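Re: the 125-residue chain
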Amino acid sequence: QVQLVESGGGSVQAGGSLRLSCGVSGSTSSRYCMGWFRQTPGKGREGVANIDNTGPTRYAASVEGRFTISQDNAKNTLYLQMNSLKPEDTAMYYCAANPWQHCWRGPVETDFPYWGQGTQVTVSS
């Protein structure tokens, strides 16, 4: 029903910036809640940010003030602008979608039924 494809990952130096994109396609027209998560080896997926289609956003404390989640419905694209990157931001980043419920809390893995395959972000010191 919903297909998600991340892009924009890469390697940057600490203090640099990257913008991740998530192309959204499929038959589902609603996009109530969209989110970004990240994962490192041996760990579960950590919620980074989410955005409701009514506007509100939520961020993990570790990224608030540095990352910005946004969406462009005309382009069917979700974005994560990442500034002031730190080595601890190194992870595989995933976008996720819930087409049936609005965001009602910070990003939680089990709230999202659809996932992309991830894009790697590596931040060197």
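The longest strand covers residues 18-26.
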